[in-house]
Amino acid sequence: MKMTGKLFLGGIAVAVQVGAANTMDDVRIYGPVADRMNACIANHVCATDPMYFAREFRYPAEPGAWQTEFWGKYMLSAVPFAYYAHDEALKAKIAASVKEVISNQEADGYIGNYPKDLRAAGGWDLWGNKYTMLGLMTWHEYSGDTAALAAAERLARYVMGIFGPGKRNLNETGCWRGLPSCSMLEVILKIYERTGNKDYLEFARYIVAQLDEGERSPQLIRSALAGVLPGERVTDPDPKRFWLLSSRKSYEMMSCYQGLLAWARITGDKRALEACVKTGTDIAATEVNIAGGASCHENWYGGTAKQTDTYIYENETCVVTTWLRLCRELLVATSDPKWADEIEKTFYNAYLASQRPDGSHFVQYTSLSGRRHLGEDHSRLHTNCCNANGPRGYLAFLTALLTADQDAVMMNLYASGTASVTWPKTGEKISLETYTLYPKMDTASIRYREREPKRFKLKLRIPSWSVATHVTVKSVGGQPQAVDGAKAGSYLAIDREWKCGDQVDVRFDFTPAGHRLNGCAAFTVGPLLLARDARFGRGDISEVLARWANVDKPQIFRTRTQDDCFYATFMGLFMTGVHTKNAGEKYPSVIDFCDYASAGNTWGDDSSFRVWLPIEKTPESL
After folding, report:
1. Which CATH class is domain 409-507?
2. With b meaning 16 or more CB within 10 Å and e meaning fewer, what string describes 37-67?
3. Model-wide pTM > 0.85
4. Which residues sit opposite 436 in a β-bridge?
5. Is pLDDT of 13 > 50?
6. Using CA atoms, how far apart are residues 28 and 18, in angstroms rounded to an integer?
7. Are the CB atoms for 597 and 349 separated by under 8 Å?
């Protein structure tokens, strides 16, 4: 992967001197997570023919279609994975599809399939232009293909010829108050950083204004700073015009905030950065559910408080993967461990639950009860937006494992493998090796891998749920030394000279936790959300817990997993049933649980599941 002083990660370039994260070149993971990811690479990414999407640029689209997003979306995961896996056959297929896409570029720079009278207007044409530019830029960044960069520039120039000061307003195109169109801010800044041409920076400045200024704009900065929650953003009072004048569209809004984060990093715009952090914080507090998923009908809706009910089209996978990516960018921008907490919760629960066990497909929506379903096909293609976006979640996880700023190197997530990062303070590469069965088990061992000793501060993320965490450091041939100060929801700093083989051992607090909401209960063990699954065959998964059930300090025990369909299994003892004066219901019942990502993973009626368990109620008059 070619670098020019910046690390290009997940669609955004991260300048080394500001902060850094490990790249796909610098990471290699093993164990269960790697097994799931490798299945995705083999049975999804490699099994998809990029030419199938590239040829769509040849044929005119019907109004409102979005065929031209799929090639770019595919490229954003296929290219990094082709280099991660050193898959020359996949690289060759990708290169051929790039040539096909470029061959369809018109004289004015346009690459798309909308009729001329509908271009750069309604529908998803500009959204498709954005993804095409992202696909071309991703291939250029990894392969060095200058033709791809030139094509992306020509397409950007085409857009810049139509929109800008004194021209048409970008935020008045398409739907959702221009969020899809304005989300191209991210790729315009990517082109600027690659070329240094300030025309692109000025166009990015225009897009930032389009995202915030004017009554018809989505007002992403001022709304955030004024404390307007994402689920309460501007909506037209006429429900028939909701899709036109709402700025609550989750996926597209977060895509715009990713662009604003890049803008803040490049220009130092503190107001934009504050708006991004504020919005991310509000999303985590008011929209994200206990599984780390979010959205109803692909919009924000105050879902955290409503998650015990079933809403239409919950937890779109496009939203889940984009939330992972936004949290990753916020982590790099702020070095705040709360974003790693969010990545971990979403990744091990909502994200892995959205993937078929064989890695071949991602669901479109993931509920907290019921069964898993394939999504519908989109735009006359045998796939949908979520299936195309799904693999990108792994990239967000891998490139958030290890980050660094001027102060320290941060271990944010725990997975077996190796990861390296450039420490901005010295420009030196620092490599760490991790061995763990986390999150199935509660321990992790981290070793310093460099031959030469280096003095640096290593910060270990202590998860917000790990109340009592034990950490020791051991030099080669020495005795373990306890490290005090581990506090849930923060980093534990270890500042020393590290020598090859020095090891840090961490034991996390996996005490089961109970959660109450709206007369229901749910349970977690470490980062894993638990669910009942019909396959256990013991009890009714909708069974009611007695009102005096031990929800707050649940008796839940890990059990030996007997079935390969389950990653982790547990047994709980609870008082159940609403007729507790019956002789047979005076003693606790056994309830079997599995991790939420394993629940329902046959994608059939045999594995119906449930997260939130109802608690019997007492009439208010009693």
Report:
1. mainly beta
2. bbbbbbebbbebebbebbbbbeeebeeebbb
3. yes
4. 444
5. no
6. 24
7. yes
